[in-house]
Design brief:
Oligomer: homotetramer
Number of strands of chain A: 6
Radius of gyration of chain A: 14 Å
Strand content of chain A: 35-45%
CATH class of chain A: Alpha Beta
Largest interface: A-B, 38 and 37 residues
Distance between the termini of chain A: 16 Å
Number of domains of chain A: 1
Helix content of chain A: 10-25%
CATH superfamily of chain A: Hotdog Thioesterase
Number of helices of chain A: 3
Shape of chain A: globular
Strand order of the largest sheet of chain A: 1-2-4-5-6-3
Mean pLDDT of chain A: 96
Low-confidence stretches of chain A: none
Largest sheet of chain A: 6 strands, antiparallel
């Protein structure tokens, strides 16, 4: 499923170098290299950058159904510092209702180890949101 | 209390143009202008940028006690779209223990309206973390 | 503002001995004695009981506007063990929109110390929900 | 793996009728019938009861390694009302570190539909916590 248009329209994702690896109905996988400008003062991948990587997978997955979906709440647990290489975020749909959708996003490193876990809920507006309407 | 060194060491915060307005023991306030490259495809302040603004206030507040403090969990609720102007994040200490610290961060816009609410917990390492040791 | 009817209709709150102390538009304060059957195996107030105390303050505050409001997401941070006496939860409205409402709830003990922090979001249905309609 | 002793020591879990279905290293599954006294005023499974069901799976899974593990943060998303029958919570370990552990818990109904999603982090104390020491 082609959702590349979604990332193309997102300047913040581009600034962080976030790439879309795969997308499907209620599903998305994103990737981000831990460049030096994505680190914090302790020299590890910034919590805000890791959150944003997961947020993009969350956004693509939740907007894959063609209705504008906006995050209302998200929670992240950081379990391992990202020190280098590439991080991946994979979003799966927990539930899709008429108005709300909930997603679980796993963030991993090159070795497949868990780096963070993210859980988020969107509010689904009536506004169509597709490549053509966006 | 001078915590500007903390932001100076954080390249990701600099890339987003996040500024430190005020800091004290267990307290911090940050600001960020909603530049075009901090927006998402819907034309509003990116959830990842709003999170990062709050995360920086959280990080400065929790590291103000001189021990390296790393986020273990955070939750954010988005309540209003940020469409322009400047956003502010103000972190207050809910509790400080030997190993853990918890903070509540309010994110507001120029009009003083709530934009998001953030709650986070850090693990406090024994490593000293000050302007001299960082 | 009289919201006692809300707790009267909630059998689970009654089973835990949760009391409503005060209520107003977008505001509520609840209390719960740490009885022995509200403890966990470590002998401290059960995380589920502390959550429920906060959840009731959240529910009363969000339903105080007369529309049925259902929790969609909540996050809790535990900062101090509750070992005895009474716990209190005070809910304040962060934001109220047409469809969503967000609340911050502070949980404290008899000494006024923070025990937990809770943040929650409701979806507001069109269904009226008042003493008369409930 | 026999963790029944863990629930036997938890009076709050017993009051709610929560049962342990299965346990293993970093894993647990619990069940709870939606009795009338576990409902809220809207007639559906109480958010606090659903949280507690998940919390018990989280607690058994995180304490399965023999060290006393206390919740520091948890987030729950409610996706479907529980109206009757039995609810299940299945906890899986996302990550286990020396001091922290993170778990994802899926809450489902009799039909296997998602009812809620829960994500939680524990702090692992040095205190041994087993059937013999508890």
């Amino acid at each position: 499923m082609d959702m590349q248009w979604f990332l193309d329209r997102d300047p913040f994702a581009r600034m962080l170098g976030i790439r879309l690896i795969e997308a499907g109905p209620g599903y998305a996988k994103t990737a981000m290299d831990i460049a030096d400008n994505l680190k914090n003062g302790a020299g590890i991948a910034h919590g805000g950058a890791v959150f944003t990587l997961a947020d993009l997978a969350f956004a693509v997955a939740s907007n894959s159904h063609g209705k504008l979906s906006l995050a209302v709440a998200a929670a992240i647990s950081y379990v391992k510092a990202g020190t280098g290489g590439t991080l991946y975020a994979e979003a799966k749909e927990v539930s899709l209702g008429a108005r709300m959708g909930t997603y679980a996003i796993a963030i991993t490193n090159d070795a497949g180890e868990a780096v963070a876990a993210f859980q988020g809920t969107v509010y689904r507006k009536d506004t169509p949101y597709t490549r053509e309407t966006a």
